[in-house]
Amino acid sequence: MAIYVVELERFKMRTMKLWSFVATCMCAATLCLADSRADDPVTVRVASYNVEFSKSATPELIGEMFKPYKLDIIGFDEAPDGDWTARVGKVLGMPFSFVGKISSANHKDKYKTILSKTPLEGTVEHKLTGRGWNPASAVRAVTQIDGVSFAFYSLHICKSGADDGHAHRLATTVLPKEKTGRVIVVGDFNNKIGDAAMKTIEGAGFRPTWNDLKINVSREFTYNAQNPKKNLGVIDHIMYNNDSGGQATDGGIIELEKPLSDHKPIWAEIAFPRKLKKLNAFE
């Protein structure tokens, strides 16, 4: 009996040591996985489309067009009110949307909206006034993609100069107040890269994805897709804040055989580091 008790105690000790070893290995593996994950960038696939109040295509057709791009989030301009954006989302499996309340120049069904795969928080619309038609606006929401927070803006603004229009107001009164570390701004800017208005936004710390993708936008156009002879160049853009450390790795202008709007859709894949160089209290 005494021998049996001794052997039983030895067995218990060996079992405890084994489980301790297994737990240590699992903990080390978890830490290694976390460390390697920390070095992996977060990739976000975004798009922007001025749909001209869905005059030439249903939301279902627009959803089908976007399917191959496997998008995380989309900004629409001149979108109809109501469930239009949600209907696009139903086709794409993107169940979260936000529809603004300010229609561009007070025209019918020219709202700014956001469609997302992931839940949207902190939704708000910023009214913008200045030179040209009014009012303009930018809708904003925050979402988490792969555990990382992003602020996303979808806008429609008027052509202007450096300090007299919607772009200036956006760059000086809206974007500087954004506390999220990673910011993406998309939409119909009605200005080309190199224009004074765009330089104002870039001066606020934002970079167009065209620069990373080495796309010469002076040779391309996003408006007018339905009347190329009267095109105004590339006036739709996707931008991100320089402080995020992001970089566009893919994207471009989506060329359609049959245009679904007077604008061409644009998209980009942007890779962001998981860790910001400067963390703030909100990150």
Q: How would you characterize this protein structure?
A:
- The termini are far apart.
- The longest helix has 37 residues, at 2-38.
- The chain has helices at 2-38, 59-66, 84-92, 166-174, 196-203, 209-213, and strands at residues 42-50, 73-79, 96-99, 111-116, 121-128, 136-145, 148-156, 183-188, 206-208, 236-241, 247-253, 266-272.
- Helices cover 27% and strands 29% of the residues.
- The protein has a six-stranded mixed sheet with strand order 3-4-2-1-12-11.
- It folds into two domains: 1-39; 42-272, 4-Layer Sandwich (Deoxyribonuclease I, Chain A), CATH 3.60.10.10.
- Residues 279-283 have low confidence and may be disordered.
- The chain is of the alpha+beta class and 283 residues long.
- Helix 2 runs parallel beside helix 3 (84-92) and helix 4 packs parallel to helix 5 (196-203).
- The chain contains six helices and twelve strands.
- The protein is globular.
